[in-house]
Amino acid sequence: MKFKDGFVQIMADMVPTQLGFAPNEPFEVSASGWFDAYNAVEKYSQAHESVEDDARAVFDAVVAGDMDDDYETLDDVERDGIMRARVFEDGTVHLFDTNMDAHVAQHGDAPNIQEGEDPTDVMSMARICDDFGVTPFFPKADFEAGEQKCQVRFHLIDEAEFRESFMDEDPEGDIETADLKGFFQPATSEDLGGTLRSIDIAKGDMDVRGEQTWTATLTVDVTNPDLLLMKAAAAGRETGRDGDYVPENVGDAIFESWFGSNDTGSPVDFGLEIIDWGPEAAPEQEPEDNGPGF
């Protein structure tokens, strides 16, 4: 998983358990997006300047009578801590303890987090938000890592167009042999938290209009459920869904990540119409009891 290294400010009386700033919603679900959302900085000198600015603001407020603390000089004001931080694209932060004076003497402004170096603390996005009473920007995924599936049900509105689009190698073959990999494409070139392993097509039931339906089953190897949920939610929000949109289940997350927010184009341009989609049904369930739309 991608990450960005830098420095974060830690509350003086909470070292090393709470960031110095409440998180903002990331402008994008990426390591850089969360880095900025946590007010992290790339250089120690930037973090040090921020700590000193905050201390001066506190002292000025005391002098003005706006705070009850009893500080006689600026040096009396307790400073926030500074820790090296590795911020990941799912919002997780690894904190690394160090003697900052010695670190700066040896490495200057750079965080210089070494491969294999053990973090002092690990903070999730949910925990950071909870520390400040902020509603998490993305909920924790309710599905696990490993193999997950999404079923997309569709019917053909132009079989000739469908065959031309997806069956170049065998235009007269069975519909089940169609290659839909060009249709289901990832919404971003960034890590989605999973990879599409396969797409299998099977003949379904007749729909209410008496037309033959087909089911495409997308099998995804999920490596990071929370990241997949975040990426799918962010992609949906960027392409017209509500600003607080979050996929309801793993089927929605897969569909949004590999079709709902990609640049493939309208299904009708390929001769098909999507009826509905959802998680793969459990084998013991009857069709009417399956996931949404099945």
Protein architecture, described:
The structure is a single chain. The protein has 294 residues and is of the alpha+beta class. It has two domains: 3-131, no CATH class; 146-289, no CATH class. It has helices at residues 31-37, 44-63, 100-107, 125-131, 159-166, 225-238, 250-260, and strands at residues 3-10, 81-88, 93-96, 121-123, 146-156, 194-206, 212-222, 272-279.
Taking the alpha carbons of the first and last residues, their distance comes to 34 Å
Main pleated-sheet profile: 4 strands, antiparallel
How many strands appear in the DSSP assignment? 8
- The tally of structural domains comes to 2
Radius of gyration: 25 Å
- Which bin fits the share of residues in helices? 25-40%
